[in-house]
Amino acid sequence: MGFVFILLYFLIVALVIEISVIAFTLTGLEKGVARYQAISMLTGTGFTTDESQLIIDHPIRRRISMGLILFGAFSLAVIISAITNILSDDLRLNKLMIISSVLLVIFILGKTPMTKKLLQHRFEYEMKKNLDISELPIKEALFLSEDDVVTDLVIEEKTPLDGKKVEGAFEHGHDINLLFIKRGEVNIRENLVDETIQAGDKLYLYGNKQAIEKLTEEMESEKPR
């Protein structure tokens, strides 16, 4: 009976992880990253990665992560207690089976398109209601459509933009906006139009994804061989 209890509890843990993965992906997180971070938070290991910033900077993901961390701490205590009392008859398997069944139903519902759509709308509403635009992650703040993107472009020596004034660097009518230039450790934002682009600069661009990809391809094709 004790082994059945432990197996059922591990099933609960697995379902909690998968439900959390669904919730994270509905906020825009990639599934692989979501699963790794969920397991990291649940076990209290490996959460200090660069990807953890994606959780910390997002208010809804922070709420999900808090629940996972608390559940992980509780789970450790339960598992230790179960192993200690492995021969006990009073393991309350019926209640554990009910919890497993409820979580399984939640997991199945969470996989349905209708539930995902409802949760996405709810998450978007919470983001807009509770946050100033300055607190939003870049994607939610600036990606106004599927074709919008924020990216960086490193300028190499003797490529088309090397030595050009910012004012004349981008063709009129193309949806490409220069946010700022990173030159070494300095971020240049003021008087950008008067700035001359130099080799080694990193340009942070915002605009139409296809237009920026085309510019990147042109830069690659015109590199000196």
UniProtKB/TrEMBL annotation:
GO terms for molecular function: monoatomic cation transmembrane transporter activity. InterPro entries: RCK_C, RCK_C_sf. One of its GO terms (biological process) is potassium ion transport. The keyword Repeat does not apply. Keywords: Membrane, Transmembrane, Transmembrane helix. Residues 138-221 form the RCK C-terminal domain. Gene3D superfamilies: Regulator of K+ conductance, C-terminal domain. The chain crosses the membrane at residues 6-29, 68-87, 93-110. It holds the Pfam family TrkA_C. The keyword GTP-binding does not apply. This is TrkA-C domain-containing protein.
